[in-house]
Automatic annotation (TrEMBL):
PANTHER family: HIGH-AFFINITY NITRATE TRANSPORTER 2.3
Domain of life assignment: Bacteria
InterPro entries, per the entry: MFS, MFS_dom, MFS_trans_sf, NO3_transporter
Species per Swiss-Prot/TrEMBL record: Salinisphaera dokdonensis CL-ES53
The Major facilitator superfamily (MFS) profile domain, residue ranges: 22-425
Identification of the protein by name: Major facilitator superfamily transporter
Amino acid sequence: MELANKATRIRLFDFKSVQMRAFHMSWLAFHLCFFGWFGIAPLMAVVREDLNLDKSMVGSTIIASVAITVLVRLLIGPLCDKFGPRKTYSTLLILGSIPVMCIGFADSFESFLIARLCIGAIGASFVITQYHTSVMFAPNIVGTANATTAGWGNLGGGTTQMVMPLIFAVIVSLGVNEFLGWRLAMVVPGILLFVLGLAYWKFTQDAPDGNYADLRAAGKIPPADRENGGMASFKKAASDYRVWALFVVYAGCFGVELTINNVAAIYFFDNFEVDLKTAGLIAGLFGLMNIFARTMGGFFSDLSARYMGLTGRVRFLFLAMFIEGIALVTFSQMEVLATAIASMIVFSLFVQMSEGATFGIVPFMNKKALGGVNGIVGAGGNAGAVLAGFLFKSESLSYGQGLMFLGCAVMVCSFFAFFVRFSPEVLAEEKAAFDTASSGDDPIKARGANEPEPA
C-alpha cells in the first residue's frame, strides 16, 4: 500500500515528528531486544560450568536461540500488515520480557534450552523495525533509514557483549556467587523490555497519517480482509521467487552475524587465552561496527539507485556480500590475537553493509505485501543462523574450521542476489518515484516544527 507524507530526510535530532519518533523508538526497541536475546551469550562460560554443559549442548542452545525466530518472523510481518507495527511491537516486547526474566530459573540443560528457545521469539523485533521505517520514509532515503535503524538495533549485539559481563561483575562484587549472579543479571534486560513495550505503545503510531485502524475506517488504506493483510500478505510474498532469493542472501549475512554474536566471546576465550571480560569486550567490537557499517550499506544502496536504479541496488548487494565471505575466511585463519581482531573488524564491516543493502531492496519487492516480504527475508537470517549453528555443535570441527566453511557458504549465497530482477516498467516507475522524492519537499519540514502532527 502507498502511504502519504513519508519523510524524505532523516533528521536525527527531531523527536517530535511521527516519522522520526518511529525511527528512534524502533531502533531502540531492537537494540534492547538484543540484550534479552543474546544477554546470556557472554556469560556462557559461567553457565557452562553451572549447568555442566558440553560443547554439543552449548551448540544446541545456540541453535535454539535462533530457531524459533524463523517461525515468529514469518508470522510477525503479516501481523504488521493486519494490526500495524505499533500494536505488534508493543505486544512482542511485553510478552518477550517474561522468558528473559525467567531464564534464571533454569537448573538443567533441558530447562535452559527451552528458555533460550522461548527468548528467541523477540528476535522477530527486527521485522517490525524494518517495517515501521519502510512505511515512514520515502524511496530516496528508505534504504538508509532501514539500514540505520537495523544497524543501531544490531549494535545491541555488541553492547550486550560488553555490558552484560559488567552487570554480572557488579552483582558478584556485592557478594553474590557466580552461579546466582548470571541468573540475576538476566532480570535487568527483562525489565527494560517490559518498560519499552509500554513506551512504544504511547509514543508511536503506525503510519505518517495515523494508526491503521483509523486509516482503514477513513478508507485511506485497504481493509485487513482476505485480500489484504494477514496471511494474504504472506501468500503474495511467498509466491515470488525473488523474495526467497533474498531469503538466502539474508541467511548469508544476518545469519552469520547472529552466529558470531553467539560464539565470538567463547571463541576468543578458548582460543586466545583471555579472561571472560576481555573476551566479551573483543566480541563486542564486532557488534559495535553497527554504529555506522549497516548505515553505509543502506547509503550506498540508495546512492547506487540514484545512478543505476534498482539494478544498482542489486549489484552493490552482491559485491558487499562476496567480500564479506572472503573476509570471514581470512578471519578464520588468524592465529595471533591482534590480526584476529583486525580481520574480524573488516569482516564485520562487510557483513553489516550486506544487511543494509538487502533491506535497501526489500521495500520495493511488493508494496502490497510489505509485511510478508519483510517477514520472509528477515526469517532467512535466522534460518542461516540455525544451519550455521550445526557447524559449531559438531565435536569434530574446531570453531576456526566452522568459520572457514561458513565464509565459503557466504560467497555462494552472494550470487543469489542476481535472481532479484525487476520489469522495465517497475524500474522506470521506481526511478521516477526516487527522483520525485529527491527533489520534493520534506513533509516534516513543510508542516513546521510547531504544527500539529497527523492524527
